[in-house]
Amino acid sequence: MTKARKTEIKNKLSAVESRVQQLVLDGIKKGELMWQKPWAGGTGIMPKNHISGVTYKGANLYLSFVAQSEGYKHNEWVTFNQVVAKLGLTKVRQGKFYWFEDKDGKKYDGKILKPREDGEKQKACPVEYWTINYRERETGKYFTKKQFDEAIKKGTHTKEDFRTWWSLGRVHYVYNIEQTVLPLPKIKKSKFRTTGAEKIVDGVIKGYNKAPKVNIIDSDRAFYSPSQDSVTCPTPAQHKTKFNGTGQFHYASTMFHELVHSTGHKDRLAREGVVNLNMFGDHSYAKEEIVAESGSCMLMQFHNLDCSSAVKNTQAYLKGWAKSLKKDPTMITEALRESSRAVMHILGA
């Protein structure tokens, strides 16, 4: 990759980070959390591409923040080129000018993006695309994802034979489906679950591959111990006593918070805030706590659990770290990326 291309990607990535940072800080200041909205179609916190159906992850979860702040009923997004293709159009360029033609070669004079009421142009949102790199330790040879999977499946290699790392592949721009002239998806009624939180928590723990030891005991606090690789959480009954009527959701939120912490263990995702745990209040500790609380909210939304009662605690929790966030706004995007990976790890996705 050329130096100019690296600079271009870095500048575009800065656009993603700046948008995320401002939205989250504004949300904390206003006392709003975007994670509590049940989106049309049941897409939850995970914004998805309207055409491919692929969910956006990592820092791209900020698209949900944008959708709520703009009042969109759908959390589905498309690139400009996807809209053009869906309309059956072809871009024709002549010198510096271009236009669109339909399948019959006739010039298209309609709109592709809806006009805004204020007369301004529709604004696109930058999204980042990250890829995992696979490099054989012994030879230094790079493997594609397909080659890596085949090597592991055939038994010619083990995961330990490779050095893996994430890198930014590219940055592109998307619009909410409601900003375009495409037909809107049918709105499906989406309601939060009001029962069954304990059963869902049990299922998450059982489905968590190589999970830490989980101790559900009569205790006055919840915590994850990296040295013991164990999660300790007060019983559901204790939560029900403390949070009359909504205890099961507080129990789920607390358990998910500690499970997200556990993904940072050195044998899992090896996050700095867990592997090199320092004194309370330092930078890595603050970020790790935001990772865990964000991941807990994601898991609540993923399982469609009513987090309206617990979300007030989360808002207060994040406000407690507001000073750290303002001091280092990059912590927000880093935390969103890592919490997304933690949730995917727990779900085995």
Protein structure class: alpha+beta
- The overall pLDDT average reads 82
Give the helix tally: 12
Order of H and E elements: HEHEHEEEEHEHEEEHHHHHHH
Sheet with most strands: 5 strands, mixed
Note poorly predicted spans.
Answer: 37-43
Shape: globular
Radius of gyration: 22 Å
In whole angstroms, the N-to-C terminal distance is: 30 Å
Please state how the strands of the largest beta sheet are arranged side by side.
1-2-7-5-6
Tell how many strands the DSSP assignment holds. 10
Can you give the helix content as a percent range? Answer: 40-55%
Q: Report the portion of residues in β strands.
A: 15-25%
Blueprint of the fold:
Elements: H1 3-30, E1 48-49, H2 62-70, E2 76-78, H3 80-86, E3 90-94, E4 97-101, E5 125-136, E6 142-143, H4 145-154, E7 162-176, H5 197-207, E8 213-217, E9 223-225, E10 230-234, H6 236-242, H7 247-262, H8 272-275, H9 283-302, H10 310-320, H11 322-327, H12 330-347
Parallel strand pairs: 1-2, 8-10
Antiparallel strand pairs: 2-7, 3-4, 5-6, 5-7, 9-10
Task: Characterize the structure shown.
The chain is an alpha+beta fold. Helices cover 42% and strands 16% of the residues. It contains twelve helices and ten strands. It has helices at 3-30, 62-70, 80-86, 145-154, 197-207, 236-242, 247-262, 272-275, 283-302, 310-320, 322-327, 330-347, and strands at 48-49, 76-78, 90-94, 97-101, 125-136, 142-143, 162-176, 213-217, 223-225, 230-234. A five-stranded mixed β-sheet has the order 1-2-7-5-6. Helix 2 links the parallel strand 1 and strand 2 (76-78). Helix 7 (247-262) crosses helix 9. The longest helix has 28 residues, at 3-30. The chain starts with a helix and ends with a helix. Residues 37-43 have low confidence and may be disordered.
